[in-house]
Amino acid sequence: MKIVQIFPGKVWGGAEQYVLDLGKALSAEGHEVSYVARPSAAVSSRLKGAIDFTLVPLGGFFSGKAARMLAPVVMDADVVHVHDAGQVPAVMKAIDLSGSKARVVLTRHIARASRTMPYRRGAMRRLHRMIFVSDLGRRLWQSVNRWMPDEKCLTVHNSIPDSPAAEVENLHARFGVDEKTPLIMFTGRVRKSKGCETLVRALGKVRDLRWMMLFVGTCKPADYDKELIEAARECGIADRVGFYGFSDRVRSLIPHAAIGVAPSIVREACPLAPMEFMQGGVCVIASDNGAQPEYITDGKTGLLTPPDNIDALAAALRTVLTDYKMRRRLGEAGRAYFRSSMSYRSFLDAILAVYSE
């Protein structure tokens, strides 16, 4: 099949990584994949050298220019996969301009009850299928958009591909801690909405135990690490909190952790970070305010805590820091569940089935 993948945003996040991983997997299967991205230094810098892509100023009410630029890209496509509902009108106009027979599929990567404006509904009704990355996201959207036929809406949970083996530095040595000290790891954008300060303050309540906290990811804003260090200083743990920064090999770093924490305080549609820890066989603690309970069973494949609850997060950390057998059991069970029910092979087959329907 000839498939066009359209990146959704102007910043690099989980949805953008989803598109890149999916496109590479489809190419490996023998499909012809082309890419479209909005003009953005943050996205272009990640893609250059990895794939070829076309820049199109998608989004906004006036989509005529974008449609004209898209028309030659979609002309011979079998499938156009969109990852932002705001881009659908421009894509449908491009389909009409080019005479393309492509099936247009939309994946919605957020969990929000957002009403679709009437002027967009005509384009949305023309979608071949609308994929939601979680049942939560589908229920919330459909609750306020009953005009969309049910048969067009389905859930395909996120997944992540296997990581190639890679040599990485000794994280204990880099941060000057003993090899027996458990590493607690956070991955992703280091920002307040991801619960980073909540995590630091929870760690202050378990400062009597041995551990080292490592944030892996880009701070937003860029100096947010200073706020976290100040919070750590107030808790008496400033010397036990480290910042690795951005890494394009984060999945190869994860197996070095003893515990992975994803304490987001905002509702997540189907976050990738907890999956990455599960895939790596690392005990995961995540907040329960999104689709996380759809793939983490509390006490069996990980631990779930209420969002922005310092005491509950501290209690979960204390539990797995003091019980090595439980920590190992949760990590192994999480990995087994990921392999049996969340593998990238299963995800890819589900996407291909949508494309081919």
Give structural notes.
With about 350 residues, this protein is an alpha/beta fold. Helices cover about 40% and strands about 15% of the residues. It is built from 14 helices and 13 strands. Helix 5 links the parallel strand 5 and strand 6. Helix 8 packs across helix 12 and helix 12 packs across helix 13. It is elongated and about 65 Å long. The two termini are about 15 Å apart. The mean pLDDT is about 95.
Question: What is the fold's blueprint, element by element?
Answer:
Blueprint: E1 2-6, H1 14-28, E2 32-37, H2 41-47, E3 54-55, H3 64-74, E4 79-82, H4 88-98, E5 103-108, H5 118-125, E6 129-132, H6 135-144, E7 153-155, H7 171-174, E8 183-187, H8 196-204, E9 212-216, H9 224-235, E10 241-245, H10 250-253, E11 259-262, H11 272-279, E12 283-287, E13 303-305, H12 310-322, H13 324-341, H14 344-356
Parallel strand pairs: 1-2, 1-4, 2-3, 4-5, 5-6, 6-7, 8-9, 8-11, 9-10, 11-12, 12-13
Structural class comes to alpha/beta
Secondary-structure element pattern, one letter each = EHEHEHEHEHEHEHEHEHEHEHEEHHH
Give the fraction of residues assigned to helices. 40-55%
Oligomeric composition of the shown chains:
single chain
**Tally of extended strands?**
13
Low-confidence stretches: none
pLDDT averaged residue by residue: 94
User: Which value, in Å, is the CA radius of gyration?
Assistant: 21 Å
How many individual helices? 14
How would you characterize the largest beta sheet? 7 strands, parallel
What percent of residues are in strands? 15-25%
Instruction: Please state how the strands of the largest beta sheet are arranged side by side.
Output: 3-2-1-4-5-6-7
Please give the alpha-carbon distance between the first and last residues.
Answer: 13 Å
- Principal-axes shape call: elongated
